[in-house]
Amino acid sequence: MKYIYLYLLTFLVFLVIDFVWLNWIAKNLYAEKIGHLLAENANLVPALIFYLLFVVGAIIFAVLPGYEAKSIGKTIFLGALFGMMTYATYDLTNLATLKNWPISVTIIDIIWGTSLSTVTAVAGYYIANFLNV
């Protein structure tokens, strides 16, 4: 049951932070740079699937290894690495395959994904400690 709480609370952290990013901080950037590619209304099912899977990955590849090692440093490193790798996969693929995909979006998005994953992993680490997983 503790793992379910760990997942749900970590998911909530990820969701809230990314919601703020997408709806207030980076909204104009994406509209300006890739607005021609954006749908009028986001398809929420694939977005939800991404969020659900991403948090599983963050927990498996960053939170639990860091927690088991009792190392926030390891959690930070693995969380950053996981975010960088996952967001780079998406953005570099877009850069390689889409016409006029801006390199600035790729760079900003990879930095964002790295940051978001790091913060999420750190939150998950502290949640795991609190729950004594």
**Portion in strands:** under 5%
Please report the total strand number as a whole number: 0
**Into how many domains do the coordinates divide?**
1
Oligomer: single chain
How far is it from the N-terminal to the C-terminal residue, by CA? 9 Å
Q: What is the SS-derived class?
A: mainly alpha
Give me the strand/helix succession.
Answer: HHHHH
Jot down its keywords.
single chain, 133 residues, mainly alpha, 84% helix, 0% strand
Description:
Helices cover 84% and strands 0% of the residues. It is mainly alpha-helical. The chain has one domain (2-131). Helix 3 (44-68) runs antiparallel to helix 4 and helix 3 packs across helix 5. The protein starts with a helix and ends with a helix. The mean pLDDT is 97.
Topology:
Blueprint: H1 2-25, H2 27-34, H3 44-68, H4 72-97, H5 103-131
Helix pairs in contact: 1-3, 1-5, 3-4, 3-5, 4-5
